[in-house]
Structure formats: C-alpha cells, structure tokens
Specification:
The chain is built from eleven helices and 13 strands. By secondary structure, it is an alpha/beta fold. α1 crosses α11, α3 packs across α4 and α5 packs across α11. The two termini are 16 Å apart. Its EC number is 2.1.3.2.
C-alpha cells in the first residue's frame, strides 16, 4: 500500500496517514490508499504503551533491530538539537540508518531555489521515511500531499510540533500519573510557540482539564486555539499572575520568548523577554507533586538553580521524547 504519511500536518486537527499498517484497529478509518486516524485517548494510550515498550528495549536484542534495512531522511530547514538528534537516535537504536540534512535552507538545493515539493520528490527515492522541520506553517502537509512515503512533521514554523505534543503528554502521564482532571499552565511565547499550540490540542482530548495562559501581551495565545478549546468544552483562562497559576497547576509548562519570530521588532522582543521566569519563588508556590516542563532550549526563563529540584522535569521530558519517537518510527514503518 503506497501513500503519503503526515503526522499532525493539519492546522486544526491532528491526523496520521500511514502506508505500512496493514490491519485497521477500530479507531482507524481507511480511505482509498491512505489509512488515517484521529488521535483519541484510546489511540494515544496505545502509542504510549508502545513508547513504554521502547523504554525497555535492551541493546543488541532482537527488538533493537526491528527497523534494520530501513532508511530515514531528516530534512531540517530550521535549527534543532533535541528533535533531530532524538529522531536520529531513535532510528539507530531500532537498527535503522539515517541520512541527514541540517540547516537545509543553506546547505541543500533549497539554497539554489529548489522547491520543497521537488526536494521531497527527490529524497523519497532514497529513503523509507522523511522527518521534516520547516520554517513555514503547513509545510508538512504540502510535503505529505505529494510524497509516496511517510512524512513526519518535526515542526513547521509557528504552526504545529505534533511529536513534541505527544512526548509532552507522555511526560505528564509518566510524571503526574494521570491526564484527566489536571491543570496546566502554559507560560511564555504562546503566540509563536508551536509546542504549546500542539499541546493544547492534545490536552483537549482528556476530561476535566483546565489550561491557564500566562504570557506577555505581545505574545498571547491566538484565538484559533482558544476557540478550539471552547468548542471542545475545555476550561481555560488567561492570567498575568504566574505565582497564583503555579500554585493551582499540576504542570507549569514554560517556553522561551522566540527572538527569531520577531523579525526586526526587537523592541517587542526585549519587552516580552524576562517578564515571566520560573525561579525559586515559583517553586515555593507550586504543589509538591507538580512539575516544571520546557520543550528546550531555554535561555533565562528558568533559572539554573531550579534544575536541582525533583519537580524540574524538562531533561527527563527530553529523554521521554526518544521513546515516543522510537514508537512513532516503529508504527509508521512496521505497524503495531
């Protein structure tokens, strides 16, 4: 079965197209040459179970070679450390091989004017799956529309970062022990942060979730996310008091103010930067079971003395990302 594959490539709903899954479970909808499913909680739990299995794979075991003979291409038009390395590590830990293009805007044929579509059509001839990071919203959907192999959205500008959302929800489940009935504070650059946008979509799948938005005025969460949450019956509110929000929440999800999204308006960047910082005062306000998360990299929005607190989950969060991406690659290439 040949088809394109797109993980969360759509802006308002998240879906996966996979050419390699031969048997459709009940939460799949098969259509022509594509198998697609919406991410409901049963599907998410199934993915998380596979990720748990990935945590327990021993080196040089038969399970560590399940992707032997498969080749993954990573094409990154924007800088990335964790996403690119975790995908490449995930592929190699499962026995597969990797072709990589870092900073593809300068060090690929894009620098000569080649279109994204032509790049995808070319690279798909060399590999079994493409992981794409792009600076434009909707780029992964464009790539999936013309590709004959899976395209995994590794972040598209200020749009979506679906695999990050999966690992974030997985982290919350592992750290807090539940997903229903939680309170989450999303802090920082909410207008340009693709991680918080995708996380908000996934949190809306769970019951009795409340989301707090804490951000400088210039980077408030956009209305499309607020409208989506409202349409799903998710309770949310905006606040300017991080201490109060931290005292209420199970998760404080901090993000950096993204200088690269401000263009020439550095005055606005400087105005927003440093307004909300997770430090010892925030830790004192937080509940003992709560955690601090961050998609990384951080600048000064979490002080380094927070790292020693057991509630600082962001480096564990990065490690959970490896297991989630191992699970994604397994499911896309060899199925359940």
């Amino acid at each position: 079965m040949a088809a394109s594959s797109s993980l969360f490539s759509c802006s308002m709903h998240m879906e996966l197209f996979s050419p390699k899954i031969s048997k459709c479970p009940t939460d799949f909808v098969c259509c022509r040459s594509k198998i697609s499913y919406m991410f409901d909680t049963d599907t998410l739990n199934a993915i998380f179970k596979v990720a748990r299995d990935m945590e327990n794979i021993e080196r040089n075991s038969p399970e560590s070679q399940i992707l032997e003979g498969y080749l993954m291409s990573t094409i990154f038009y924007e800088p990335s450390t964790r996403t690119r390395h975790s995908f490449e590590s995930a592929m190699r830990r499962l026995g597969g091989e990797v072709l990589t293009t870092e900073n593809a805007r300068e060090f690929s044929s894009a620098a000569k004017g080649e279109t994204l579509e032509d790049t995808i059509r070319t690279v798909e001839g060399y590999s079994d799956l493409i992981v794409l990071r792009h600076f434009e919203s909707g780029a992964a959907r464009r790539a999936a529309a013309i590709a004959g192999i899976p395209i995994v959205n590794a972040g598209d500008g200020p749009g979506q970062h679906p695999t990050q959302a999966l690992l974030d929800v997985y982290t919350i489940e592992r750290e807090i022990g539940k997903l229903d009935g939680i309170k989450v504070g999303l802090v920082g650059d909410l207008a340009n942060g693709k991680t918080v946008r995708s996380l908000a979509y996934l949190l809306a799948k769970y019951k009795d979730v409340k989301i707090y938005f804490v951000s400088p005025d210039v980077v408030k969460m956009k209305d499309d996310i607020k409208d989506y949450l409202t349409s799903k019956g998710v309770d949310w509110e905006e606040s300017s008091d991080l201490v109060e929000v931290a005292s209420e929440c199970d998760v404080v999800y901090q993000t950096r103010i993204q200088k690269e999204r401000f263009g020439e308006r550095l005055d606005l960047y400087e105005k927003a930067r440093g307004k909300y910082i997770v430090n010892q005062n925030i830790l004192k306000a937080m509940q003992r079971h709560a955690v601090v998360m961050h998609p990384l990299p951080r600048l000064d929005e979490i002080t380094v003395d927070v790292d020693a607190d057991p509630r600082a989950a962001y480096f564990r969060q990065a490690k959970y990302g490896l297991y989630i991406r191992m699970a994604i690659l397994k499911l896309l290439l060899v199925g359940w």
